[in-house]
Amino acid sequence: MLETHSLTASYGQFKALFGIDLTIGAGECVAIIGANGAGKSTLMRSISGVLKNAPGMVVHKGTPIGDLPADAVLQRGIAMVPEGRKLFPSLSVEENLLIGGQIRRGDGRWTLETVYDLFPILKERRLSPATALSGGQQQMVAIGRALMSNPELLLCDEISLGLAPVVIRDIYAALPRIRETGAAVVIVEQDITRALAVADRVYCLMEGRVTLTGPTASITRDAVHAAYFGDAA
Amino acid sequence: MQVTVTTRTRASTVAGFVALGLIALGLILPAFASRSLIQDLFFILTMLTLAQLWNLIAGYGGMVSVGQQAFVGIGAYAMFAGVILWGWDPVPAILLGGVAAFLLAIPMAFFAFRLQGAYFAIGTWVIAEVTRLVIAQWKTLGGGTGTSLPREATSDIIGVATIAELFGLRDAAARDVLAYWLALALAVGTMAAIYALLRSRNGLALTALRDNDNAARSVGVDAGRLKWLVFLAAAAMTGLVGALIYMQTARISPDAAFSVTSWTAYVIFIVVIGGIGRLEGPIVGVLVFWGLQTAFSDYGSWYLLALGLIAIAVMLFAPRGLWGLFASRTGIALFPVQRRLVTSGLVTGQPNTQREEVT
Amino acid sequence: MIWLDTIVQGLLLGGLYALFAAGLSLVFGIMRLVNLAHGDLIVLAAFIVLVVVEATGLNPFLSALIAAPALFAFGWALQWFVFNRVLGKDILPPLLVTFGLSIALQNGMLEVFSADSQRIPAGPLESASVDLGAVTVGIMPLLTFASAVAVIFALNQIFYRTALGRAFRATSDDPVTASLMGINPRSVFAMATGLAMVIVTIAALYLGMRSNFDPSIGPARLIFAFEAVIIGGLGSLWGTLVGGAIIGVAQTVGAQINPEWQILAGHLAFLAVLLVRPRGLFPRAVD
Ligand SMILES: Nc1ncnc2c1ncn2[C@@H]1O[C@H](COP(=O)(O)OP(=O)(O)OP(=O)(O)O)[C@@H](O)[C@H]1O
Ligand SMILES: [Mg+2]
Fold first, then answer.
1. What average pLDDT does this structure show over B311-324?
2. Which of the two ends of chain C, N or C, has the fewest CB atoms closer than 10 A to its terminal CB?
3. Any chain A CB within 8 A of the CB of B358?
């Protein structure tokens, strides 16, 4: 459904990605792992259109979209939960969700009701300013906000960052229900065990390059360790 | 392998000699130049100085003031006050202009620095308006209609008689020569001072400050204090220029001396056209401006309309101005302030890139 | 009694300044753009309303209604084709572009409309007044003030009750993340400037009916607008009404003492507020 072809990205003089080839099939769950600064977020930003690339570097259903702006990428059904949640502080919880649904594709499954159903606590806090919530609740808003556009591909950048283990468990519990709708999900994770547990396939990035990829089942801890830290063992 | 840090380029060395030559030529020019050329050069030099000063605070310091007319005006009025009220000779009275502008800059900075970002611009404008309105109440200096320098004062300005004798000129022409020399001194002094500042550690910090307050702090410079110093120094110099301009004009009114068009719009235009944030910019800009002014100023408001549109077009299509276009094509920098690594005497990298990746 | 009258007149004058300020505040709130040509745009709108009045013979209010869509389109295009290209981290380019626009507009209007003072004829409304017992106030100042309240109320409704307002606030918070929500920040900015031009038209209507205007008076209107915004606190729409009122009262009181002090008194009131409350009277909590 989505491929990247020799995707490169840089910030000014600094090159962050050196030719990434990635494929995501419909309905698949793909994990992207790698150490801090490996380029995971940069990859997500490139796919979602926050960073502009050459058109052919990102291809969606046969159409080159590498140069589309983020709003046009969303219209094609690719939504992102950005790193650090990035809720709108001037908007209430419900308004944050509504703004995610400003562009709704078809009449998919996700509405205010179904999102509240997925994360019931949000319904109680629906009128609070989004930034008044706890970290975990904010992460739920960020996920709900991205779902509101009924995406076919959901990019989640470090949704467990800075959260307590119980909270992480709650958030990951939502994943199967998201996948039920047929959406493909990309999970960027630093927690390798968790990533391997939920994903069908894994990509491991190091310093802007893919160092390991394959179905989760075929991947050993040692191989991940090597790909992660770069020791050739 | 020996590595040194330098800001010098071949072009800058040549430019240094050319500059010295030009200054020498400028000094002896009155011996053979026509009076109208001297007057034109006076205009060019004073506008150049104002433009360099604005470029320093806005282009390098990020303080986009649209209230520089306050310093021109207060400087000019202080000089008039010195001559008319206290009987000073106009030339030393110019110094009063610098002092007055410096004193005005203190409250102006105090208020305007409280305004963030772009609102700083209008804040400076408000203070300039307040100053204009207050000065217009100063009845002994003509109030709202203004006044002229008394004939006695202009007829025996220090040095004029000597110049008249030296070049065989009439008094009026000799006054122009004196004003021209002073303008030349101010222009050269201002540019030399700015160049020295920019090459110092403070200069680095100043540009870092424009881009990011924290970066400047990490260079170990007190950002707030540096801003103050630069703003005050530029104000004092602007006051001197204002006083000099009105010594030459010999007639003043609040509307003219505090004109936002003459002392800020033109100045911004010069810097933008030439290239903001580089020392060469105002030089190119003032020449272009002078050319346009001579050719088209008879067209009045059409001319000003065109100037406004040109400034917009430059910002849209060539935000680094004419000199920026030229420099990016050729890599030439006459007054380089960026540090570059020099390995075994060979220059590495492009002169324009400030931070080179060292791998 | 004279002082009560002076203060009431000042408060009502503040309505006009709040109208000047609302557009400036809207644009700054959404895209952090300070439009130095704001005052000149008000004067331009006044000329356009006047042209419509003269061409159609309609009354000024209907004429403004006709002019407003055209000015909306003008504002939209100005943002889309010019301002959007210079907005960014560096505040210098947009400032210089709007400054250039200010000079160009002033002189363009001078060529087209001449330096003569003009006034939008408002018929009997110009001199009508009501007796409120203690003071007598003109209908025109009252209408101005009521319009300012209505404009600010309507803007607040748009901001907090509509999808457009939501997009305005989200884009103001974080344009990059807003674009991830399918919002095109550039078109949000264009809408905002278009809307600001509609408010500018309303401001211009009252400016033109209440007093003479000519191409040179824009910068002074910009300054009044700016002072009202800063006194009120950046981003607070109701604050601009208070800010306008403070400037207005200071001006009328100053003028009462000495007619030459009117403008100066307004500026001094602004500086006094800046001295004690640098962030204005009603600063927005988050910024
Ligand atoms: N806005 C930016 N400007 C300059 N460099 C950046 C920027 N964002 C990221 N980088 C650099 O690009 C590289 C990749 O960053 P990226 O954020 O993609 O890493 P990451 O894998 O997501 O790391 P993390 O686990 O810390 O989120 C890093 O070296 C980082 O320093
Ligand atoms: Mg990351």
1. 90
2. N
3. no
Ligand nearest to the CA of A47: 1
Find the CATH number of the domain harbouring C101.
1.10.3470
Buried-state track C49-63, b at ≥16 Cβ within 10 A, e below 16: bbebbeeeeeebeeb
Residue type, B26: G
Whether the CB-CB separation of B176 and B33 falls below 8 Å is answered with no
Which residue range forms the structural domain that includes residue C6? 2-276
Would you list the domain boundaries of chain B?
A: 34-294
Q: Which pLDDT does position B218 carry in this prediction?
A: 63
**Is residue C48 a part of any domain in this protein?**
yes
Q: What is the CATH number of domain B34-294?
A: 1.10.3470
Q: Does the pTM exceed 0.95?
A: no
Identify all chain C residues contacting A49, using CB atoms and an 8 Å cutoff: 179
Q: Which residues pair with A156 in a beta bridge?
A: A81, A187
Which backbone phi and psi does A130 adopt, to 5 degrees? -55, -35
Structure tokens at B131: 């100053």
pLDDT tens digits along A180-206: 988 999 999 888 888 888 899 999 998
- How many domains does chain C divide into? 1
For residue B344, the model assigns a pLDDT of 39
Q: Which domain holds residue A179?
A: 2-89+153-229
Confirm whether C284 is domain-assigned. Answer: no
CA atoms within 13 A on the CB side of C165: 13
Q: What is the 3-state secondary structure (H, E, C) of chain C?
A: CHHHHHHHHHHHHHHHHHHHHHHHHHHHHHHCCCCCCHHHHHHHHHHHHHHHHHHHCCCHHHHHHHHHHHHHHHHHHHHHHHHHHHCCCCCHHHHHHHHHHHHHHHHHHHHHHCCCCECCCCHHHHCCEEECCCCEEEHHHHHHHHHHHHHHHHHHHHHHHCHHHHHHHHHHHCHHHHHHCCCCHHHHHHHHHHHHHHHHHHHHHHHHHHCCECHHHHHHHHHHHHHHHHHHCCCCHHHHHHHHHHHHHHHHHHHHHCHHHHHHHHHHHHHHHHHHCCCCCCCCCCC
The pair of structure tokens assigned to A139 is 């992460």
Instruction: Provide the residue type at A21 as one letter.
Output: D
pLDDT digits (tens, 9 = 90+) for B222-237: 777 888 899 999 999 9
State in Å: Cα A190 to ligand 1 middle.
14
A14 in contact with ligand 1, CB cutoff 6 A: yes
Please judge whether B307 and C103 are an interchain contact, meaning their C-beta atoms are less than 8 angstroms apart. Answer: yes
Q: Do B125 and C223 touch (CB under 8 A)?
A: yes
For B277, nearest residue in chain C (alpha carbons) = C92
Q: Which helix (H) or strand (E) holds B19?
A: helix B10-28
pLDDT tops 80 at residue A45: yes
- Ligand 1 atom 3 nearest Cα: A11
| ipTM of predicted complex | 0.90
